[in-house]
Write a structure and sequence with these properties.
Elements lengths: L1 E8 L2 E8 L7 E7 L7 E7 L2 E7 L4 H12 L13 E6 L10 E3 L2 H8 L9 H14 L5 E4 L10 H4 L5 H5 L10 H15 L5 E6 L5 E6 L2 E5 L23 H8 L3 H10 L2 H6 L4 H9 L3 H25 L4 E5 H6 L1 H8 L11 H6 L4 E2 L8 E4 L4 H16 L1
Parallel strand pairs: 1-6, 6-8, 9-12, 12-14
Antiparallel strand pairs: 1-2, 2-3, 3-4, 4-5, 7-8, 9-10, 10-11, 13-14
């Protein structure tokens, strides 16, 4: 079964094509169309025969997918005999009102996602717009939404709740839903294989442009640093993270801005960028090393909040068998890993400095005497979505 997994932006379409009939679950091709809607858009596909790049006018996501399918079915270089081989398009969907799990996209699903457009302003609007286009222009291909909140449905109710009126929680869905579910699910699955046990206590640290920690026990989520929206939890590259809501009246009063303007700032110009003007951690680390005080503050705040949630989840799980760093920052920043694990020997967490400096891809970083294993593991969210899409199709037969 061949599954196309889509990653959508407002003007981009990125994908990976998996062959799940093969036990090794290979990626047959990956590609992207950028600058959708511009006069000319580059369409790149990486095939076994090598990369191919086309330039063409791509007015919308439906045309983008058609272009990708044309490249994938090219008689000379493609990996598909026809587009009919694509069993479905799977989406790493984020959030929807009163809806989670893995579902076939229909009008009810789209309406539930659109109802939370203001909760997930960077994600839901481009996804629902593109999904509607694809459903109209590619009716022969099923569209499947695998929501990031699905993995966190196992979180105990007390850990999901905010201290708000009961109606807010039960009727309006004001809860800690958690996100990055595909990434944390992959880490849970992969670490069970590495450790040779399914009952391990794991703290998954997905650190990147958007970051979260997840407490995992017996392969299931027990807590996530992300709450009601992707703007919560740790500070992100340009999203605020946790904030006392009673700060809002002060900002509204002092700036004279509307609530919509302030929310836009919190969702787009806050986080690490709001503190130091930079939103790429590599640039922030470099600036901090050159004596930039605001960059140093952003770095220290990020590390402090990671450690805050790490400590909380050690209590949640009653200790840990493994701490895993994943995501662009988690996999690549030896500075962040060292700072997060510093002086935690009394928790049984001891990082090996030499291993940390040379770590690449999947590596164990813990010192020989560390009770808790420390790992870097590259995540594979797309593979999780492909599997979930396959399983839903199989269940429907």
């Amino acid at each position: 079964m061949k599954i196309l997994v889509a990653n959508l932006g407002s003007t981009s379409f990125k994908y990976r094509l998996f062959d799940l009939a093969d036990p090794s679950e290979p990626v047959l091709a990956r590609g992207a169309v950028e600058r959708i809607g511009a006069a000319s858009s580059p369409c790149t596909v990486h095939l076994p025969s090598g990369p191919q790049i086309r330039e063409a006018a791509v007015p919308d996501h439906g045309v983008a997918v058609r272009m990708c399918l044309e490249q994938l079915t090219d008689p000379a270089t493609g990996v598909l005999k026809s587009a009919d081989e694509v069993a479905a398009i799977g989406f790493k969907a984020v959030h929807a009102k009163h809806l989670s799990g893995v579902v076939r996209v229909n009008s009810e699903v789209l309406e539930a996602m659109e109802a939370y457009a203001d909760v997930c302003p960077a994600h839901n609007p481009p996804y629902t717009k593109a999904m509607r286009l694809l459903a109209d222009k590619l009716p022969e291909i099923p569209l499947i939404a695998a929501f990031e909140t699905d993995f966190h449905q196992s979180i105990p109710e007390p850990a999901k709740r905010y201290a708000v009126p009961e109606e807010w929680a039960t009727k309006f869905g004001i809860k800690r839903h958690g996100f990055h579910g595909a990434s944390h699910r992959f880490i849970a699955t992969r670490m069970a294989q590495i450790l040779g046990r399914s009952d391990a206590r794991i703290i998954s640290c997905h650190l990147g442009g958007s970051s979260s920690l997840c407490a995992i026990s017996n392969g299931k989520s027990q807590g996530c640093s992300l709450g009601m929206s992707p703007q919560s939890g740790l500070p992100h590259n340009n999203r605020v993270g946790d904030l006392d809501v009673f700060a809002l009246p002060v900002v509204l009063r002092e700036t004279g801005q509307s609530l919509e303007q302030v929310l836009h700032t919190l969702a787009n110009k806050s986080g690490l960028e709001g503190i130091c003007g930079l939103n790429d951690l590599r640039d922030i680390e470099a600036a901090a090393g050159q004596g930039n005080a605001q960059a140093r503050l952003a770095l220290d705040l990020f590390i402090t909040d990671i450690r805050r949630y790490l400590g909380s989840f050690l209590v949640t799980l009653g200790g840990a068998d493994a701490i895993v760093f994943t995501g662009g920052i988690g996999e690549n920043s030896k500075v962040i890993r060292e700072a997060v694990c510093r002086d935690l020997g009394w928790f049984g967490i001891e990082l090996d400095p030499a291993k940390n400096l040379t770590a690449k891809a999947e590596s164990q970083l813990s010192a020989d005497g560390s009770r808790v294993q420390i790992w870097t593991v590259p995540t594979n969210e797309e593979l999780i979505v492909a599997r979930q899409t396959r399983d839903l199709l199989a269940a429907a037969v």
